[in-house]
Amino acid sequence: MKILVRQALIKDNNSSHNNTVKDILVSDGIITDISSSIDVKADHVLDAKGKMASPGWVDIFTVGTDPGFEFKDDLKSLAESAASGGFTHVFSSPNTQPIVQSKTGVEYIVSASKSLPCQVHPIGAVTKLTEGRELTEMYDMHASGAIGFGDGTKSIQSAGLLIKALQYVSAFNGIIIQIPDDQSVAPHGQMNEGIISTQIGLPGKPALAEEIMVARDLALANYSQSRIHITGVSLASSVAMIKKAKKDGVQVTCSTTVHHLLFTEDDLVGYNTNLKVNPPLRTEKDRKALIQGVKDGTIDCITTHHTAQNKDAKICEFEYAGYGTLGLEAAFGLLGTTGLTIDEILQTICYKPRTIFQLQATIEKNNPADITIFDTESVGTYTTNHIKSKSANAAYIGKAFKGTAFATILHSNYQLK
After folding, report:
1. Can you tell me the distance from the alpha carbon of 117 to that of 94, in angstroms, rounded to the nearest whole number?
2. Where is 303: in which H helix or E strand?
């Protein structure tokens, strides 16, 4: 199969064609020509004049639902959501049923996603059943294709166990992915503890729950001389701690979420259950600090923490609602409204995640095709028509967007929006 992309502005820091307008020909999954003009008959032709082409985008944390919770999302619907948003790679947490804690679980996801428009990379569980008691066979999972390790939505609470996990994965240069949440601090907290939580009568979760975990995990990573990635960073104080740790040589990288860059605790006044997330939405001061953290490079990646929830988990009292929001379909357009430049956005959803997790892709002749076609100027408002997930718990409905992903090419898989 031949795919011809016409007159795209190539945005790829590692390509000799960076910042030039070219035709790109993909034949049977391989980039076979990049020229000013290509005259061939192709199965698919995309007029990309006025659009850009970059290496495919990467989301380093989505909440796993397949196997076990396919009524929320299965691998196919997850991949279609991702490709619709411009992502060619997403990482799936191990919080499935059964838990992804063995080479068999890893191989299922790796194999099942090969024919999909987006490669789904499993994150292997650090502890058996994600219960925080006993380590899994992480080396076997690594050898089978696990992209990283963590207990997903369940932060590893035991410092001693996390040290052992960090030492274990350092043997093969692996990485632990951890949400910063000390679950012993206000375990029933529903939102950020502060004036707003008091005014609307919801139990608060203090910033301390995140700050304690960030400080602890940085110390453990430094002690073990191993790599850790802290995802879902939501506080100005967390950004400051991570910035200092990086300067001190700690092998830490981090990510924040699209919703933490866009929303604050003020948006919960209407009890929108789609904005019930963990870590919770914080203050405007924190949101601005996260934006600055992206701009100065302290925050390496932006992720969606895409979490599919069935209707019953969201259409209920806030206290009983499930955590999480969809995000893959809307991430790029929402980021375009935050004041971040296109280069800053691409750093966080393309170049840096690929570097951290060793997912190489360059728009050069003879390389495998792994490309996202997009523009930065399309504007509009998100509606339910944009949702590709089986679920509909999207906090972004009604929000303005700027920028759109038009197509993805992953080897021979081509998806046009």
Report:
1. 21
2. strand 301-303
Q: Would residue 385 count as lying in a domain?
A: no
Q: Is residue 119 part of a domain?
A: yes
Tokens of 266: 């003020």
Cα distances from 326 to residues 20, 73, 242, 274, 398, in angstroms, run 34, 11, 27, 8, 14
Q: What is the CATH number of the domain that holds 47?
A: 2.30.40.10
| In a shared domain, residues 318 and 411 | no
In this structure, what token pair is assigned to residue 331?
Answer: 């991430």
How far apart CA 322 and CA 311 sit, in angstroms, is: 10
Residues 161 and 30 in one domain: no
Encoded tokens for 386:
């944009």
Selection from 182, 136, 126 nearest residue 157 by Cα: 182
Residues 212 and 159 in one domain: yes
Do residues 90 and 180 both lie within one domain?
yes
CATH number for the domain spanning 311: value is: 3.20.20.140
Q: Which region holds residue 220: left if phi is over 0, alpha if psi is between -120 and 50, else beta?
A: alpha
**Which residue range forms the structural domain that includes residue 160?**
56-356
- Whether 156 and 177 map to the same domain: the answer is yes
pLDDT in tens, the chain (417 residues): 999 999 999 999 999 999 999 999 999 999 999 999 999 999 999 999 999 999 999 999 999 999 999 999 999 999 999 999 999 999 999 999 999 999 999 999 999 999 999 999 999 999 999 999 999 999 999 999 999 999 999 999 999 999 999 999 999 999 999 999 999 999 999 999 999 999 999 999 999 999 999 999 999 999 999 999 999 999 999 999 999 999 999 999 999 999 999 999 999 999 999 999 999 999 999 999 999 999 999 999 999 999 999 999 999 999 999 999 999 999 999 999 999 999 999 999 999 999 999 999 999 999 999 999 999 999 999 999 999 999 999 999 999 999 999 999 999 898 887
Cα–Cα distance measured from residue 189 to residue 205, given in angstroms and rounded to the nearest whole number: 4
